[in-house]
Write a structure and sequence with these properties.
Number of helices: 11
CATH superfamily of the largest domain: Butyryl-CoA Dehydrogenase, subunit A, domain 3
Bound molecules: flavin-adenine dinucleotide
Distance between the termini: 37 Å
CATH architecture of the largest domain: Up-down Bundle
Strand content: 5-15%
Oligomer: single chain
Shape: globular
């Protein structure tokens, strides 16, 4: 259901991604999860298909694809495996931050391998004592000749230990958001150690780990954008895009749960007929489908706002003062909130539709349910999304 049909090239690419997802990625997702194995070779395939470079400008080797198309790609991938869909979304988030805010010299030196997908990106904002209140982060970076010495702990880093290049937010100045800078730190950086992965309730195939920085001498030319104090604005601008990626992944996960539940309800018979014929089950499926579609359309509408800003020449609308900047931030928060709540409810209802087998590992819906929960937490909890939306409403009403 779309008011804006895809071009034939876009439809062709999505068909290829769907085929890859359903024939190669979905069948291995349960095994990767059970073995807590990050499927790096799948990322190599995504890179070969051009999916790591899709949303980036041609001048850095990107595919100049629309945000809308990249979200549809993320949805298809997450429908097959959330670890893969979310992994690409996080890679895009980190790559976008570097691509958009790098100096011309940094862009030439540090971006092409990320865009091409030869290197995997990660984004390190959160800390043990600074989660929702990210501006309170305590990791310090002090200038020492040609280096910045970084000391502190970054927490919950998706791809921690498997990423090649991290965007690390650290404090170069006073307390508060304006004292924060962003650094591009490679995995082999002396003084950087990655802790063992967190033992999570789901998404074991997507490692999440702390980074410990102990007086790590990061070359001064790795200060993103070449200026101190811009790190928090960079981090928030990246999240405006990242939240749309998470929303698209949530739609994909909800769609996967709906697919499973619909197929099962058509097949499973009780009282001499398919359970889908009982109104109590049919209405559940109808609600799941409607909620998933509503989340998809809200997310795609938000993508179109971003695409319009890009056509106006703005790659970072919330930083460069584009007239739609506030609407873009609000739409991203609304999409993330709606889609991840939809995924939570839909995956829970899918378990209900499958009955007892839904609660076993013989079907993937129990995994979907465990995975959906994290989407309400990362890249800003859903309470924080509500906070963003409420602040916008209050400001507009003044
Ligand atoms: C699997 C996973 C992957 C992640 N990946 C990354 C990553 O790649 N990079 C990264 O930087 N971070 C990452 N995160 C961290 C994530 O963004 C944080 O967990 C999140 O921002 C919440 O921070 P917190 O866990 O410290 O919770 P807290 O901030 O301590 O919040 C605890 C509870 O209090 C609520 N709360 C806090 N403040 C308010 C408020 N003002 N109003 C209402 N409610 C409030 C929260 O909503 C939450 O329910 C990841 C987290 C997970 C679980």
């Amino acid at each position: 259901m779309s008011l804006h049909p895809l071009s034939s090239e876009e439809a062709e690419l999505l068909a290829v991604v769907r085929d890859l997802g359903q024939t190669r990625i979905a069948p291995r997702a349960a095994d990767d999860e059970a073995a807590a194995r990050f499927p790096r070779e799948v990322f190599d395939e995504l890179a070969n298909l051009g999916l790591t470079w899709l949303p980036f400008p041609a001048e850095v080797g990107g595919g100049d694809g629309s945000v809308r198309l990249s979200l549809l790609v993320l949805e298809e991938l997450a429908r097959a495996s959330l670890a893969v869909g979310m992994g690409l979304s996080v890679h895009h988030l980190a790559t976008w931050a570097i691509t958009t805010f790098a100096t011309p010299e940094q862009r030439a030196r540090l971006v092409p391998e990320l865009v091409a997908g030869r290197l995997l990106g990660a984004y390190a904002l959160s800390e043990p004592a600074a989660g929702s209140d990210a501006a309170a982060l305590a990791t310090r970076a002090h200038r020492d000749g040609d280096t910045y010495r970084l000391t502190g702990t970054k927490a919950w880093v998706t791809h921690g230990g498997v990423a090649d290049r991290y965007v690390v937010m650290a404090r170069t100045g006073d307390e508060g958001a304006r004292g924060i800078s962003a650094f591009i730190v490679d995995a082999d950086q002396p003084g950087l150690e990655v802790a063992p992965p967190e033992r999570k309730m789901g998404l074991a195939a997507s490692p999440t780990a702390q980074l410990h920085l102990d007086d790590a001498p990061v070359p001064a030319d790795r200060l993103l954008g070449g200026a101190e104090g811009r790190g928090f604005a960079i981090a928030m601008a990246a999240l405006d895009g990242g939240r749309l990626g998470i929303a698209a992944c949530a739609v994909g996960l909800a769609q996967a749960a709906l697919d499973q539940a619909t197929a099962y309800a058509a097949d499973r018979e009780q009282f001499g007929r398919p359970i889908a014929d009982f109104q109590g089950v049919g209405f559940l499926l109808a609600d799941m489908a409607t909620r998933t579609e509503a989340a998809r359309q809200l997310t795609l509408a938000a993508a179109q706002l971003r695409d319009r800003a890009t056509r106006d020449g703005s790659r970072a609308p919330t930083v460069d003062g584009h007239p739609d900047a506030r609407a873009i931030t609000r739409a991203a928060a609304m999409s993330k909130l709606t889609a991840t709540d939809a995924a939570m409810q839909t995956t829970s209802e899918a378990v209900q539709v499958l009955g007892g087998v839904g609660y076993t590992r013989d079907f993937p819906v129990e995994r979907y349910l465990r995975e959906a929960k994290v989407l309400q937490i990362l890249e800003g909890t859903n309470q924080i999304q509500r906070l963003v939306i409420a602040r916008h409403l209050a400001t507009d009403a003044r």
